[in-house]
Amino acid sequence: MKQKINLTLALFALISIIAPAFSITLINYSLFRTQVQRDLQNYTQLLCDTGVFQTAYAAKQDIHDFAESPALEELRSEDHRITWVSADGTVLYDNDTDASGLPNHQDRPEITEALSNGSGSSVRRSDTFGLDTFYHALLLKDGTVLRTAVRASSITSAFLRALPAIIGIAVILLAACLIMSRFLTEQLLKPLNSMAENLDGRIGEPVYTELQPFADKIRSQHEKILDAASARQDFTAGISHELKTPLTAVSGYAELLETGMVDASQTKDIAAKIRHNSDRLLALINDVIRLSELDHHELPRKFVPTDLYELASECCRNLSVSAQSRNLHLSCAGSSAVVTGDRDLIKELIENLIQNAIRYNRENGSIEVFVGEQDGHPELTVSDTGIGIPKDQQEKVFERFYRVDKSRSRETGGTGLGLAIVKHIAEIHDAKISLTSEPGQGTTVRVLF
C-alpha cells in the first residue's frame, strides 16, 4: 500500500511538472509568434512608406541604385529579408541573394494572397535548421508586391532549449515529492497500523473521523471472530465431554459382558443400559449434525405460508404419548396465525420446546401451548409447571450443552442442544425469543415471528 501511494504521488508530481511546462511553452510560443507577425507587418509598412520601391519602379531603374537611400538605410536589418516582386511574380530585388537567379514567386502563398487581398502572410518551417520563417507581403500602389521575411525558433526548438531546465526542475521536485510522499504515507498509515496492533485492546477515537465507521466495522468483525472461535472451542470441549460419558459407560458394560463378570440375570439390565447410552449417543450426534446444518445459512430453505396453530396442534398430538408417560397434561389453544417460513424447521422448533417442557416438568404437571398474534405478528407460547430457571441462568439456557439440571437432563435423554437448535431456527426466521421463569413455578418461552 505504501509503495502504491508513493508511486501515485510521484506520478502525479511528474504530470504536474511536465503538463504545466509544456502548456507554458506552448502559450509563450503562441504569444511570441503573434508578436513576430505583428512586428513584421509594421516593418513592411515602414519600408513601403519610404517610397523607395515605388520611385524605382516609376523611374524604371534598378532598385540597387536606390539601396543607399538614407530612408532605406535606417530601416535596413540583417535579420530581415526584403524581396520586391512584380505583378507577374518576377523577383525585382532581394537583399539576401541575386534576384536574377530566383524563380518566379507568383505561386508563393503570401504573394498570391497579397495580389488578391492587398496583403498576405504565411509561415514555413525548415526542418533542417529547426526554424520557422515568417513572411508578410504588401501590395504597392504600382501593382508590385513588397515582401519581408524573418526567421525565428520553432516550437520544437524552443521546447528543446527549455528541456534541460525542465528536466532539472522535474528531478528536484520529484525527489522532494518522493521524500514528502514517504513522510505523508507514514503519517497517513500510522493510525491504521495502530488500530491493527490494538484490535485485542481498546481502539480509541480514530485520528480521521472518516475512519470511524471503518474502525467500528473492523472491531465488530474482530469481536465476532473471537466470539466464534471461543464458541467453537467451547463446543469442541463440550461435545468431547458429552461423548465421553456414554462411550465410557458403553465400554464398561461391554467389558463386563465380555469377561463374564455378570450373572445371566443381570445381562438384560446391562443390555438395556448399553442401549440407553447408545440412544443418547445417537441423539447427541443427530443434534450436532442438525446444528451444523443450521449454521449454514446459505442452504436452500422452503419458505411457504404455514398455519402456526395447525402445526402446533400436530406437534402436541405427536408428543401426547410422551407427556402421558410422565403423567403430564399437554394442551394446545389459540387461533390461526400464518407464518411464512420453512415448515419443517418451525415444526422442529415447536417439538423441541415441548420436549424441553416435558423433560423438566414435575409429576402431574401441565404444558400449555398457545398460538396467537401480538401487534399483528404471529406468536407461539409454550408454558410449563416445571422446575423453573434461576434468573442468573436464564440468558445461558440457549447456549450449547448448557443444562439447568444436568443429572435430570441425562436421565431423560437430553443432549443439551435442544434450545440451541431452537435459537438457530428462530434466527433463520428473524424471530425473537423471550423467556420468563421462576424457580419452582415453571417456565414460559415466547417466540414472536
Account of the protein in words:
The structure is a single chain. With 449 residues, the protein is of the alpha+beta class. It has helices at 2-50, 52-58, 70-73, 109-117, 155-197, 212-259, 264-295, 308-325, 343-359, 406-411, 418-428, and strands at residues 80-85, 91-94, 119-126, 131-139, 145-153, 303-307, 329-334, 338-342, 366-374, 377-384, 432-438, 442-448. Strand 9 (366-374) and strand 10 (377-384) form a beta hairpin. The chain starts with a helix and ends with a strand. The model has no long low-confidence stretch (mean pLDDT 80).
Second-tier CATH architecture of the largest domain: 2-Layer Sandwich
Strand order of the largest sheet: 2-1-5-4-3
According to CATH, what is the topology of the largest domain? Answer: Beta-Lactamase
Helix share of residues? 40-55%
One letter per element, helices H and strands E, the order comes to: HHHEEHEEEHHHEHEEHEEHHEE
Mean pLDDT, to the nearest integer, reads 80
Our estimate of the beta-strand percent is 15-25%
Please compute the radius of gyration using only Cα atoms: 51 Å
**CATH class designation of the largest domain:** Alpha Beta
What's the number of structural domains?
3
Question: pLDDT below 50 for ≥5 consecutive residues: which ranges?
Answer: none
Alpha-carbon distance between the two ends: 47 Å
Oligomeric state: single chain
Please report the number of helical segments: 11
Strands, total number: 12
